[in-house]
Design brief:
Blueprint lengths: L7 E5 L4 H14 L6 E5 L5 E5 L7 E5 L6 H17 L4 E6 L17 H12 L3 E5 L14 E4 L2 H11 L6 E5 L5 H11 L2 E6 L6 H4 L32 E3 L6 E9 L3 H12 L4 E9 L5 H6 L5 E5 L5 H6 L3 E4 L2 H13 L15
Parallel strand pairs: 1-4, 4-5, 5-6, 6-7, 8-9, 8-11, 11-12, 12-13, 13-14
Antiparallel strand pairs: 2-3, 9-10
Helix pairs in contact: 1-10, 2-3
Keywords: Nucleotide biosynthesis
Pfam families: Pribosyl_synth, Pribosyltran_N
Family: Belongs to the ribose-phosphate pyrophosphokinase family.
Length: 356
């Protein structure tokens, strides 16, 4: 029997509990069945994908969450996309709530822009569209040769603040660095709350050493041809940590897009406690929470960490009861429905400014 070209299917790119759970939530909201496929690792760790039903002429949505084994998840997505492409799928759309390698989107000395490489690999594998959420930098959308819908988790996190944080009107939104001030300002304006910014650092970290602040070297090379006499660059030096804004007697809500290595957040919480904040919340879209993050959070001054289910973190929640989850499957399902029906996506970005 011929399958209608207007049909669409939703597949899960791996069989992990978290990815399957998110895929089931999305398909339940859409009223469709999850596509039949098998994704597994061979004994030599090679990824294998078997699609168990016809996809000819259909639009396919692949849901892929990114667990701790990032590179395996990427290969699963690439292999499944290519399997669907060679099975004559009409369109292949990746639903990747957290886009991996998004922090490697700028050149660092003699490194590489891995995020751009990954975008090219996905296009080559057969993807024609991507749905993601809160890219680390919005400019990443320019790395792709096909459309990218960068959804926002802020409406769900703002709703959590309004419904789950008692006396949130006495709160203040905090940016843990000047770089995060624009995101914090967006939350503050929507919630009609004040804004505070943490500036400075306790000591020079390894990442700062790699950002070029100490290059070129302070001593000129006088051997051979010196070329133009360029002025020497002054090394950056951040001031001691200060808090711009009054947090005394307030609930401090730190907002960011990714929480992974929690050292900066723990240090920020200690500073806010010293400045008089009596409760401290962390709001982030992607809760990677790597390494000892759950233990550090449990032992810190942080009262609660709220993240969405874009990234699996069930193990971390068992280790730290302070971690709470907000479900964003609703907006992912609505994005799939609108794309399939050819409807405008503008509704999903209502009240979101160009600079947000």
């Amino acid at each position: 029997m011929n399958i209608a070209k207007s049909g669409y299917r939703v597949f899960s790119a791996n069989s992990s509990a978290a990815c399957t759970e998110l895929a089931k939530k999305i398909t339940e909201r859409l009223g469709v069945e999850l596509g039949k496929s098998v994704v597994f690792q061979e004994s030599n760790r090679e990824t294998r994908v078997d699609v168990k039903e016809s996809v000819r002429g259909q639009t396919i949505f692949i849901i892929q969450t990114i667990p701790r084994d990032v590179n395996t998840a990427i290969m699963e997505l690439l292999v499944m996309a290519y399997a669907l492409k060679t099975s004559c799928a009409k369109n292949i759309i990746g639903v990747i709530p957290y886009f991996p390698y998004s922090k490697q989107c700028k050149m660092r000395k003699r490194g590489s822009i891995v995020c751009k490489l990954l975008a090219s690999m996905l296009a080559k594998a057969g993807l024609t569209h991507i749905i993601t959420m809160d890219l680390h930098q919005k400019e990443i959308q320019g790395f792709f040769s096909f459309p990218v819908d960068n959804l926002r988790a802020s409406p769900f996190l703002i709703q959590y603040i309004q419904e789950e944080i008692p006396n949130y009107r006495n709160a203040i939104i905090v940016a843990k660095s000047p770089a995060a001030a624009k995101r914090a300002q967006s939350y503050a304006e929507r919630l009609r709350l004040g804004l505070a910014v943490i500036h400075g650092e306790a000591q020079c970290s390894e990442s700062d050493m790699a950002d070029g602040r100490h290059s070129p070297p302070s001593v000129r090379n006088t051997t051979g041809h010196t070329g133009l006499e360029l002025p020497l660059m002054m090394a950056k030096e951040k001031p001691p940590i200060t808090v711009v804004g009054d947090v005394g007697g307030r609930i401090a809500i730190i907002v960011d897009d990714i929480i992974d290595d929690v050292g900066d957040f723990v240090a920020a919480a200690e500073i806010l406690k010293e400045r008089g904040a009596y409760k401290i919340y962390i709001m982030a879209t992607h809760g990677l929470l790597s390494a000892d993050a759950p233990r550090l959070i449990e032992e810190s001054a942080i009262d609660e960490v709220v993240v969405t289910n874009t990234v699996p973190h069930e193990v971390q929640k068992l280790q730290c009861p302070k971690i709470k989850t907000v479900d964003v499957s609703m907006i992912l399902a609505e994005a799939i429905r609108r794309i399939h029906n050819g409807e405008s996506m503008a509704y999903l970005f209502r009240n979101i400014t160009v600079d947000d």
